[in-house]
Amino acid sequence: KAGVTQTPRYLIKTRGQQVTLSCSPISGHRSVSWYQQTPGQGLQFLFEYFSETQRNKGNFPGRFSGRQFSNSRSEMNVSTLELGDSALYLCASSLGATGGAGYTFGSGTRLTVV
Amino acid sequence: GESVGLHLPTLSVQEGDNSIINCAYSNSASDYFIWYKQESGKGPQFIIDIRSNMDKRQGQRVTVLLNKTVKHLSLQIAATQPGDSAVYFCAESISGNTPLVFGKGTRLSVIA
Does A100 contact B102 at a Cβ distance shorter than 8 Å? Predict the structure, then answer.
């Protein structure tokens, strides 16, 4: 079966711009979680969506937002980009569990802010 | 390939040797733990998990040990192969119902 698909794979943006990243979960998976990965902070939880509702939220500023569509595809948006937002953004999907073994990660979107 | 962690501790082992990767977790309420492997340019891949009612769990060439007293996990890889070269993360959760909290990761480098 197809895995978790994240688009685009690479993105370069300028400070102050906004960006939208997309995640298509595994077919049948209803939970989508987003993580930010940086060399300094490692993997940090952003938020989780289940059946179009945000179920959990990490400790990130309001510039980071997300949504989930009825087909379980999810997008995350970062507004007013800062240099520190440069990171690998990872999406993970699962059938329903929030932190369970059913998590499957995509390959991520590498965002570079210049 | 993409660098997933410029500041990670590195473990270098000879091909064929056993590897032991350690992890200290933070939340004493955590009762579910997972080890992930991340190769360059890819997302984390599930290796093995363990619940707090167990001290040890074995998979194919991998064993996870859990010491709840000192909040410590270890991942043992038997007969380490070049394909095992990657960054390894432990992650913790409460009953698998809270978002995973990841450790900082360890880079495993296998010397052929």
Answer: no
Do the beta carbons of residue B107 and residue B87 sit within 8 Å?
A: yes
Q: What residues 38-67 of chain A have any CB closer than 8 A to a CB of chain B?
A: 39-40, 42-45, 48, 56, 58
Condensed to tens digits (0 to 9), the pLDDT of residues A19-56 reads 999 999 999 999 999 999 998 889 999 999 999 999 99
Give residue-wise pLDDT tens across range B37-87. Answer: 999 999 999 999 999 999 999 999 999 999 999 999 999 999 999 999 999
Tokens of A30: 């209803």
Of A48, A88, A92, the CB nearest to B4: A88
What distance, in Å, lies between the first and last C-alpha atoms of chain A?
37
Provide the sign of the torsion angle of the four alpha carbons B13, B18, B20, B21, taken in this order: positive
Q: CA A9, B12, B81, B56: dihedral to nearest 10 degrees? A: -90
